[in-house]
Design a protein that fits this description.
Blueprint lengths: L1 H5 L4 H7 L2 H16 L1 H11 L6 H15 L8 H17 L7 H22 L3 H5 L3 H10 L4 H8 L6 E4 L6 H10 L4 E4 L3 E4 L16 E3 L7 H6 L9 E5 L6 H9 L2 E7 L2 H14 L4 E4 L14 E7 L14 H4 L2 H18 L3 E11 L8 H10 L3 E10 L21 E8 L3
Parallel strand pairs: 5-6, 5-8, 6-7, 8-9
Antiparallel strand pairs: 1-3, 1-4, 2-3, 9-11, 10-11
Length: about 425
Amino acid sequence: MVAAVRAGRSTTALFERLEPGLRGGVQALSFHALRWLGLAEALRSQLASRLPSPEVDALLCTALALAARPQEGQGADQALHTLVSQAVEAAKQSPGTCHQASFVNGCLRRFLREQALLMQVASQQPQAVWNHPAWWIKRLRQDHPQHWQGILQANNSRAPLTLRINPRRVSQAQYLADLAAVGLDARPVGAQGVVLARSVAVPSLPGYAQGHFSVQDAGAQLAAPLLLEGLPTTAGPLRLLDACAAPGGKTAHLLELAHAHVLALDVDAVRCQRVTQNLARLGLSAQVQAGDAADTAAWWDGQAWDGILLDAPCTASGIVRRHPDVRWLRRPTDVAQLAAQQARLLKALWPLLKPGGQLLYCTCSVFKAEGEAQIQTFLAHHTDAQMRPSPGHLLPLAAGVEPQLPDNQRGEHDGFYYARLVKLGA
């Protein structure tokens, strides 16, 4: 997995190919290695005079990440010596690394002997301290000078398992009782959220097959209520567009809360199938269609929308604690390229909105180029757009400094940006 990420491949699709019995363990090890990869690389650079082959280096850095930052529940010396033994055995078993097993053994045993000095040297390198690329650290320092350290610390923590209760099937209070009945501790967050004290296999949770809940971060649960706030509720079903809908969490939330006709649009036809499947489990239905939201001539029927949800493609810089590979997959040029795509979508969709209608722009990013700066530019060029009260940039866990949120939602979410825009006119 580490080698795949370095080659530019996301872990998400790779995990899905694993047999279920291996998936949980592989994901836990991979995520741990990726969270501490900056430190592991700094240590490896001291232990090896030249860069090993990609496969050997991936194995060595994985072992160093585990040695330098042991997983929860590991002991000290005994666990480290076992780790070295297992890493060497793994090297022997793989054709790509078997000829380097003694090299892996030598590097790791030297780490055990000189750990304090090696860690001290690594601590002088920002990428080793924060375990993010240098450009990412620099951008966060510029965008969030008071909170950049908290954001980076949060990114290296484990995200909680957060559910959104389907109020058409069960109440939040009842579902908390259902969890307690099977011995699972949980607490409420927001109007529909439930945060579990520990992660478990989602299909094993009570009410999964009956559509009692969806998995959705507490920050993402703000989208549907924000779009619906201020829209009419008495003149028949609302016409709502979810412009970048897959995998369908926000589409489902809109349908749970409102009497609405929803078009769930996504550029990926395969991901559209997943939207349909997720809605079916929840007992909900929408018009699901594959198409490029910016190419409106290809899919729009000419009738204006009451509300448009634009969850735009972005760097995903706000969800790094859930997807630790993102920080290593992104490049500095991605921010500007994605910001241009976001601007293109905003420009294309705005004319499709009714006067008095609302467009909710959101990204799961903490970079201001994809949030605050994007919307300031849009407002400067669209005099018929007005900002309504909006959360703006929400910062992840360790920052937890969002006075615009209720007390029971602060510090319980990934990083997001939200801007609610109303279209002026008769």
